[in-house]
């Protein structure tokens, strides 16, 4: 019976002691308390980077805080807080903290609705090329070399073998001149214009000159663009649209500000 009578009081005492522990400073250095809130803030930042809370981690953070407080107190004793450069840097640091807080608060308070993100996604899809091309090429220095390659191809030489042997494009020659899938705009204009005129499996019948030299091009295939799914780009779109809206807000704030 006695245990039951005193149990609530005991619980209350334990709760009170836990609250006191939470409010207890991390350390007191020359009479100056380092609040627990600072420890919690550092732990939160480290946790976001993948660090795990542990007594060893807290001990290290505590030691770092004490070191910084000792140095800060000594700097204050030396009157460095009155130094003009220190005051400027302190003001700028405070401004940067406020800027970070403003951006983070905006991102939390202005989440873009999924419907708006899907609309932006559809808009971006309309800007994608209508077709993608899978091509190979052989790049050489002179028109004469390119014509010789075209003649060799007509005699039955394999395009891939000639590319590996003759092409000066070191990036594609090891793969038989393979350039993968790409839109025509990914290439220099002369190359793209010649490529889109080819039928599947066809090779250019005349050398294609560009700033890099002379190309012999083979078109392997054509397809509709294989863009990413909405869910794959949703997070990126959220950041992009939020960033655009935030830029507009900042521009509006600057326009309304009285600048002399």
From TrEMBL:
EC number per UniProt: 5.2.1.8
Signal peptide feature range: 1-21
Keywords of the record: Isomerase, Rotamase, Signal
Single GO term (MF): peptidyl-prolyl cis-trans isomerase activity
Annotated catalysed reactions: [protein]-peptidylproline (omega=180) = [protein]-peptidylproline (omega=0)
UniProt domain PpiC: residue ranges: 130-221
Matching SUPFAM superfamilies: FKBP-like, Triger factor/SurA peptide-binding domain-like
Superkingdom of origin organism: Bacteria
PANTHER family referenced in this protein's UniProt entry, alphabetically: FOLDASE PROTEIN PRSA, PEPTIDYLPROLYL ISOMERASE
Family in the record: Belongs to the PpiC/parvulin rotamase family.
Protein name: peptidylprolyl isomerase
Originating organism: Chitinimonas arctica
